[in-house]
Design brief:
The structure holds 2 protein chains of 2 kinds. Chain A is an alpha/beta fold. Chain A is built from 16 helices and 8 strands. Chain B is 50% helix and 12% strand. In chain B, helix 5 crosses helix 10, helix 6 packs parallel to helix 8 and helix 7 packs antiparallel against helix 8. The chains are: A alpha/beta, B alpha/beta. Chains A and B meet through helix 7, helix 8 and helix 15 of A and helix 4, helix 5 and helix 12 of B.
Chain lengths: 381, 349
C-alpha cells in the first residue's frame, strides 16, 4: 500500500496555491502566528499567512541554511525557536515579502515577541491578543473584548466596513470544515488504522485556514477518504503498535515516518495536533465563540487540561505508546514534558521524548532519532 | 539567596513584580521575592530542558531549600517558564497554597478591568486560605503605607538624577528588598538617605555613568565588575530595581481597582507587548540619569528578552548611545569572557 494518499496531494496543492496568492498580494496579507484564529482576518477581507507554515514549507537548502546562519547572528545564539527566528533575516533579504500588518496571540509568547520586533523594525502595525492562562468567565470576556477590537482594527486596515454577517459566514465555513475533520478523526479511532499518520503531521496547516472555502473541500475529501477506506477494509500493512504523536515533527525527513510506520509497524494512529478539541462555534455570537474556542484548545493554558485530553486520546484511539516530539527551543511545550510523562506513567501509558528541530536541519541526525524510537518500540513489545 | 537573606514568619514566596504586595500586607502576610541563588542544580536540569530559563531553574532549588519556611507561593503568568514552574510546585508541594495570577500584557481599560477581577479573586483566595479578613479599610491602610514608600523612592530617584546623591547598586537593591519585608526599616533608611541628599550639592564621581537593564534581577556580578573597572552603575532597570516602587496608587479609587491600575501602568518589563513603551522608558532613563553607556544583560534562553534586546540594541544604535549586550546564565559569578567584555566596554569612555 502506498504511503501518501490522494487527499494529501490535494492538500499540498491547496497549500501551495494559497501561499502563491498570499505572495502575489502582500498589501492584503497579514502575517499571523499559528495560535491566532484566521476567521477574523478572512472576514475583514484580508489574507492570513501563517508564518510557521510558510517557514515549514521552505525546503531545506542552501538558501534556508544561510538564512538560519544569519538568524543565529541576530539572536546572539540565544536559543530562539527556528520557526520564529527565521522571519527576520528572511524579510531582510527579501525572501519573504513585507505584509500589511502582523497579528498574534500570546499563546506562544515567542511568536508575539517576534512579531513585535518585526512590526517595529518595518513600521507595520502589530495587533495582539493577550492570552490569559486560566479559563474563567472573566478571562473569556477579556478575550472577547480583544477579538472585537482586533476585528475593528483589521477592518480599518482593509478599508472594509465592519460587517458582522461576513464574520458569521466565516465562522459557518470554519464550523463546516471542523465538522468534517472531527468526523474523519472519529473514524480513525478504529483499529487497524485507516492510513499512515506521518503524512498527517503537516495537515495541521488546513486547520490554520479554517474559514476559507477551500479548507472545507480538503476537510471533506479527508472525511470521504476515511469513509471509503473503512468500507473497503483496506488498511495500511503491518500495524504492530498504535502510536499517538504529540506536537509537530521534523518537516524535512519524510523517510523517518515511512521507516517508523512501514518498517517498524509503529503506525501513527493519531496526531495530537489534528484534534478538534473545541465545540462548534455559535455564529450568532461570534466574538464570544472565538474566545471560548481559544480556551478550549487543549494544549494551551494549564498542563492539566492537556494531560486529561491526552489520556482520553490514548483510550479513544487504543494507543500503545505516545511519542512526544520536543522541537528545539520550544519553551511553550517542552518544559511541561516531565509533568505529562509522570501523569501518563501513573495511568500505565508508555511515553518517549524525541528531540530535534522541526525546521532547522543543520544538527539533524536520523540515526539518533531512530535509535531512540527503536528502543521505545522494543520496550512496547 | 532570598530577598534580604532571611525568610520572615508569614513569608509568601512571590515570583513577579506584578504581584501586588499591598494585598498580602493587608492580610498580615509578607511578600518575599524569590531571586534564586545563582546556581542551577542537577535536579533542576533533570526536570527541565537544557534551554529552559536558568532563573526558573534557580528558583526550584530555592523553593526546595526553604520549603518549610514559606507559607504559600504566588506566581504570575509572566512567561512560559513561570507558568511551568507554578505547575511543578502545585504538583509537588502539598498543604500550602500555590496560586497563579493572570497578569495582562496590556494596560488598556479592558486589561485593567480584567486584572481588577483577577485581584479580587486573589484577595478572596488569600482570605480563605489564611483565614483572614481583608477589609477595604485594611487595604486602604496598606496602600497609604505603600504610597509613603513610593514617594520616598521617587525623592531618592530625583536626588540621583539631580546629582545630589549617589547610591551603589547594592544599596539600591537592598533598599528595594526591604520595602516589602519591613516597612518601618525601609521608611527610616529611605528618609535618612533623602535627608543626606537634600543637603548635598553636585555629587560627582569620576568614571562613566552606566545603566544596567534587562535581566530579571540586577546582576550584581556585572555591577561589581563595572565598579572594579572604574564605572558607576547609576541606576538599574530590573524587576528588583526602583522600577517596581515608582508611582503612587490612587487613594480615591476603589482599592483593588486602584492597585490594578497602578501595577499595569508602571514601568513595564520585556513581557509586556507594547514595545514602544519599553523604548520610551529606556530612553527616558538614559536621558534623565545622563547615562554614558548601557549594559543590556539578558538571561540566556529567555524568549522575552531574546527579542526585546534586538529592538533595544537597534534603538540605542540609532541614538548613538554606547551599549554592551551580555547574555549569560542567571548565575552569581561572571565568566572570564564577561570580565574582558565589560573591561573593553568601559575603556571606550
Amino acid at each position: 500500500m502506498k504511503y501518501y494518499e490522494d487527499f494529501y496531494f490535494s492538500f499540498l496543492q491547496y497549500q501551495y496555491k494559497y501561499y502563491q496568492g498570499v505572495f502575489a498580494n502582500p498589501d492584503k496579507c497579514i502575517y499571523k502566528d499559528v495560535g491566532l484564529f484566521p476567521e477574523l482576518i478572512f472576514a475583514s477581507g484580508l489574507i492570513p499567512a501563517i508564518i510557521e507554515v510558510i517557514v515549514g514549507m521552505i525546503p531545506p537548502n542552501i538558501v534556508s541554511e544561510s538564512i538560519l546562519n544569519k538568524a543565529d547572528q541576530y539572536f546572539y545564539d540565544n536559543g530562539a525557536c527556528s520557526f520564529n527566528k527565521f522571519a527576520l533575516p528572511a524579510l531582510e533579504s527579501g525572501n519573504l515579502p513585507l505584509p500589511k500588518a502582523f497579528a498574534s496571540i500570546a499563546v506562544c509568547q515567542e511568536a508575539t515577541n517576534n512579531f513585535s520586533l518585526l512590526a517595529h523594525k518595518y513600521g507595520r502595525p502589530h495587533l495582539t491578543i493577550d492570552y490569559p492562562y486560566k479559563y474563567t468567565k472573566e478571562s473569556t470576556r477579556y478575550l472577547e473584548k480583544q477579538y472585537i477590537e482586533l476585528f475593528k482594527s483589521l477592518c480599518n486596515l482593509s478599508g472594509q466596513t465592519l460587517d458582522i454577517d461576513r464574520l458569521r459566514e466565516c465562522l459557518k465555513k470554519s464550523n463546516t470544515a471542523a465538522h468534517y475533520l472531527k468526523k474523519a478523526n472519529d473514524l480513525r479511532k478504529g483499529s487497524p488504522s485507516l492510513l499512515y499518520g506521518g503524512q498527517m503531521l503537516k495537515f495541521i496547516n488546513v486547520m490554520t485556514l479554517l474559514g476559507d472555502d477551500k479548507a472545507i473541500e480538503i476537510a471533506k475529501e479527508y472525511y470521504d477518504f476515511c469513509i471509503q477506506r473503512k468500507e473497503s477494509e483496506e488498511y495500511p500493512c503491518n500495524q504492530k503498535y498504535r502510536i499517538l504523536w504529540c506536537n509537530l515533527g521534523p518537516v524535512y525527513d519524510n523517510y523517518f515516518y515511512e521507516y517508523m510506520e512501514m518498517e517498524l509497524g509503529a503506525i501513527i494512529a493519531f496526531e495530537e495536533i489534528n484534534t478538534i478539541s473545541w465545540v462548534q462555534m455559535n455564529e450568532q455570537n461570534p466574538f464570544l465563540s472565538l474566545a471560548e474556542k481559544t480556551h478550549e484548545v487543549h494544549f494551551v493554558g494549564d498542563v492539566q487540561k492537556r494531560i486529561q485530553y491526552l489520556i482520553n486520546l490514548v483510550h479513544d484511539y487504543k494507543i500503545d505508546g505516545v511519542v512526544f516530539f520536543s522541537h528545539m527551543n520550544c519553551r511553550m511545550f517542552n518544559p511541561k514534558f516531565q509533568l505529562i510523562k509522570q501523569a501518563l506513567k501513573k495511568e500505565g501509558i508508555p511515553i518517549v521524548e524525541l528531540s530535534g528541530d522541526c525546521f532547522d536541519k543543520r544538527n539533524y541526525s536520523r540515526v539518533q532519532l531512530t535509535t531512540r524510537l527503536e528502543a521505545f518500540i522494543e520496550m512496547l513489545s | 539567596m532570598i530577598s534580604n537573606g532571611k525568610i520572615e514568619k508569614r513569608g509568601i514566596a512571590i515570583f513577579c513584580d506584578y504581584i501586588p504586595h499591598e494585598i498580602l500586607h493587608a492580610a498580615g502576610l509578607i511578600s518575599q521575592r524569590v531571586s534564586g541563588d545563582g546556581k542551577v542544580t542537577r535536579k533542576a536540569r533533570s526536570v527541565f530542558p537544557t534551554y529552559m530559563c536558568s532563573y526558573a531553574m534557580n528558583c526550584i532549588y530555592s523553593i526546595w531549600a526553604n520549603l518549610i519556611e514559606y507559607q504559600g507561593f504566588v506566581f504570575a503568568n509572566s512567561c512560559h517558564a513561570m507558568e511551568t514552574l507554578h505547575e511543578f510546585i502545585r504538583e509537588y508541594v502539598q498543604g500550602k497554597p500555590v496560586i497563579i495570577i493572570d497578569v495582562p500584557r496590556k494596560s488598556d481599560p479592558s486589561a485593567v478591568e480584567f486584572y481588577t477581577s483577577e485581584l479580587s479573586k486573589f484577595k478572596e483566595i488569600i482570605e480563605e486560605k489564611f483565614l483572614v479578613q481583608i477589609s477595604d479599610e485594611k487595604l486602604r491602610e496598606s496602600i497609604r503605607l505603600s504610597n509613603i514608600k513610593r514617594r520616598l523612592v521617587l525623592e531618592i530617584e530625583n536626588l540621583i538624577i539631580n546629582k545630589k546623591l549617589l547610591l551603589t547598586a547594592n544599596e539600591m537593591i537592598s533598599l528595594n528588598n526591604c520595602a516589602t519585608i519591613n516597612s518601618e526599616e525601609f521608611i527610616n533608611k529611605a528618609t535618612q538617605i533623602v535627608n543626606i541628599g537634600a543637603v548635598q550639592d553636585n555629587i560627582l564621581k569620576s568614571g562613566p555613568r552606566i545603566l544596567v537593564s534587562g535581566s530579571i534581577h540586577t546582576p550584581m556580578d556585572i555591577v561589581q565588575l563595572v565598579q572594579e573597572y572604574g564605572g558607576k552603575v547609576v541606576t538599574c532597570d530590573n524587576c528588583n530595581s526602583f522600577r517596581s516602587l515608582i508611582g503612587e496608587i490612587d487613594c480615591d479609587e476603589e482599592p483593588i481597582r486602584a492597585i490594578a491600575q497602578r501595577y499595569l501602568r508602571k514601568r513595564s518589563c520585556a513581557r509586556q507587548t507594547d514595545i514602544n513603551q519599553r523604548i520610551t522608558e529606556l530612553v527616558n532613563l538614559v536621558n534623565n540619569y545622563k547615562i554614558d553607556g548601557v549594559i543590556l544583560s539578558v538571561v540566556k534562553f529567555c524568549p522575552d528578552q531574546a527579542y526585546w534586546i534586538i529592538t533595544m540594541a537597534d534603538e540605542l544604535k540609532r541614538r548613538d548611545i554606547p551599549f554592551l549586550i551580555i547574555d549569560d546564565e542567571y548565575s552569581s559569578e561572571s565568566s572570564g569572557q564577561i570580565h574582558t567584555r565589560v573591561q573593553a566596554f568601559l575603556e571606550r569612555f
